[in-house]
Amino acid sequence: MVLSRLFITILVLSLCTSVATAQDVNYGETYLIGTTWYFNQQNSTVGKLIARDALSGTHFVFTGKDEPDSELRGLDFNFYHDGGGDIAAQLENNIVHVEQERRIGYASMDLLRVEDSYRAVAFFNNSMRGAMAYDWDWGFGAFTIQYLASPIQRLPLVTKGCIDSNGWAHVVSGSHAMGQDVTFTLLFWHIEPNDDFTEWEPMNARVLESMTGLGHHVKASRESGHVGLVWQHNIVGVPPPEGWENTVAHGMNNDLYLLESEDGQEWDYDNPFNITRTIPSDHEREGHLAYGDTLRPFNDVDILYMGDVIHVVFSARGFWADPLMNEVPPVEGITVKESMIWHWDSDSDSLTLVGDGWYENEGDPSSIQSNVSRPSLGASEDGTMYCLFRKVTEDDMNLNQYCYGELVVSISEDQGITWSEPINLTGTNAQDHDEFDEYVDEAHPSLADVVDESLHLYYVLAPESDESPQHGLLSECRMTYQRVPLMELPEDVVPLELPREGFTYHNYPPLSVPDVSDQLPTSSEIVAVYPNPFNNRAEVSYNLVSKGQVQLDIFDANGQTMASQSLGIQNSGTHTISVNASELPTGIYFVKMNLGGKVATRKMICLK
User: Fold this and answer.
1) What is the DSSP letter of 140?
2) Is-contact 145 4, C-beta < 8 A?
3) Could you write out the DSSP letters of every residue in 369-420?
4) CA distance 551 to 421
5) What average pLDDT does the chain have?
6) Per the domain annotation, does 94 fall within a domain?
7) How much is the pLDDT for 1?
8) Residues 28, 478, 51, 107: what is their CA dihedral angle, to the nearest 10 degrees?
9) Are residues 420 and 541 in the same domain?
10) Cis amide linkage into residue 240, ω under 30° from 0
11) How many angstroms separate the CA atoms of 599 and 593, rounded?
12) Which one of 275, 349, 501, 525 has the minimum C-beta count within 10 Å?
């Protein structure tokens, strides 16, 4: 067992103040958690930097740096509870340095329930090692450090973790061989504590696969033993095939994979579930379908359990694969600004739009952030879901056209099937300020899982600068907590306007219509159901590889036949049929087609 070290030195940061609010915002009040000269709290998925417990306590972690020229970074912690008096005064007096090293940070956190109390558990990188730190008691601020051994000669980076209902820890890290190509190995630890939670025994990490990015996260259900691990799986492989080496396209060419355990112990490692199921380019398809899917998961992902149902949100950028394979690599275009945020859940197995960032922007959002990015999920007891994310606009930038961010929230009252237009919670547009040192850039947002009477959000607040926010190491930043009472939010939210009728994750948007051959489809399959979710009517497109009999049936989630229609003998090619669903109630359905002897099924969601 790796020896643990105890750090109980409490250091009050001199730059914390007792002023109740740290900035003027559109909703709620803000509080200063601490200051840091290290802007980049994460360089990939943010994870949870804040946790709200059932005792009305709120726990915070961040990467601290006390001086701009210091080589030391720290894992810093803060805490307050509703019954402890003035919030700002508590936060001024409770901040601690958990650990300080040269290369430390990129933290995330979860809560360990011990009888009727809660303890913060942080997961982070420490001098290029994976580590976890667990508090002695509720908001106590005295942590024991446990290091995680790597089974391979690679250095753990971007370490995420969670605590399940059994009190076990699950930790995932993307490990990197410094000085070599930027590829990562996904490591996964299962860690069990002793009976009084004073020591933890990490089991040997399991090597899952190689990746081209660090978009991974792990989360546990509070109500059962379910644990879910999500990561970005490269479609063409690591190392890449010829023509893809050292290209941006290779790093963006991902599907999103899910590995889930019902008890936190038994895992089917060889059979992860493909959430996005990207359609590859194929010059034998007609029109824009020849390009395959336009969108690819990139960099950001968050997870939330509601009971046994897992909800996932992620960012996606544009990616146009060359169907004729004339380019090296075979990609006609990608986007680094235009992006979208999507939601998926294990109940409906459908992808729905949360945030639309597909607009022109002359500024530079930075290499790892886009027009919309950094989604973070929370939910209230009544099942309402909230997705916090960062959004940049064309006019909110500095003189060198580096973009500043606003934090917005989209709301879903139907478990993620539909979302609202985003509500701007912060409102610090740089164009509204005259002073150079105004704090105008919100970044690295994290929303507490628990939404009670308020949204509890936490982020980096950076001052206006003439440099890129991504590299703002010479700027003193405020780690800011914003508490937004739900009663302050608009009562009537506006449904998110979709980019076009029939809009879905797959095949959006076409860059142009390719010059493809008139060859027939190579497989009989259902190409798309759109719109999905649908209301009174849905269009089902399908391919028929050769002339044959076609039958269509619609079933509900219980297997009951809701509609059945013989479409007769049809010629080969691509066909579309309109399905009248005006009499179907809201729910999940399955369209099943017999296409000349081959059976294909696709899930549909009816939303009245």
Assistant:
1) -
2) yes
3) --SEEEEEEEE-TTS-EEEEEEE--TTSB-TT-BB--EEEEEEESSTTSS-B
4) 39
5) 86
6) yes
7) 33
8) 160
9) no
10) no
11) 6
12) 501
CA-nearest of 453, 452, 471, 451 to 462 is 471
Does one domain contain both 393 and 443? yes
Number of domains forming the structure of the chain:
2
Q: Which three-class secondary structure string do you get for 71-113?
A: CCEEEEEEEEEHHHCCHHHHHHHHCEEEEEECCEEEEEEEEEE
Place of tokens 């949870």: 48
> Degrees (nearest 5) of the Cα angle 538, 541, 546?
150
Whether 170 maps to a domain, the answer reads yes
Q: 424-457: per-residue pLDDT in tens?
A: 999 887 667 665 557 888 999 999 999 999 999 9
504: left (phi over 0), alpha (psi -120 to 50) or beta: beta
Q: Rounded to 5 degrees, what are φ and ψ at 449?
A: -55, -40
- Asked if residue 28 lies in contact with residue 483, where contact means CB atoms within 8 angstroms, the answer is yes
DSSP string, 291-332: G---EEEEEEEEEEEETTEEEEEEEEEEEEE-TT--SSSSEE
Q: Which domain holds residue 532?
A: 525-606
pTM: 0.82
Report, as an integer, the average pLDDT of 193-216: 86
What is the rounded average pLDDT of the residues 146-167? 85
Average pLDDT over residues 449-476: 80
CA–CA dist 348, 143 (Å, integer) = 41
Does a structural domain hold residue 506? Answer: no
Do 457 and 446 touch, CB atoms closer than 8 A?
A: yes
Share of the chain above pLDDT 70, in %: 89
Q: Are 456 and 600 in a shared domain?
A: no
Write out the two tokens for 51: 């946790």
Please state, in angstroms and rounded to a whole number, the distance separating the CA atoms of residues 491 and 485: 12
pLDDT tens digits, 90-103? 999 999 999 888 77
455 and 570 fall within a common domain = no
Q: Is the Cα torsion angle 462, 466, 471, 474 positive or negative in sign?
A: negative
Nearest by Cα to 230 from 297, 166, 165, 307 = 297
Note the residue count of the chain.
608
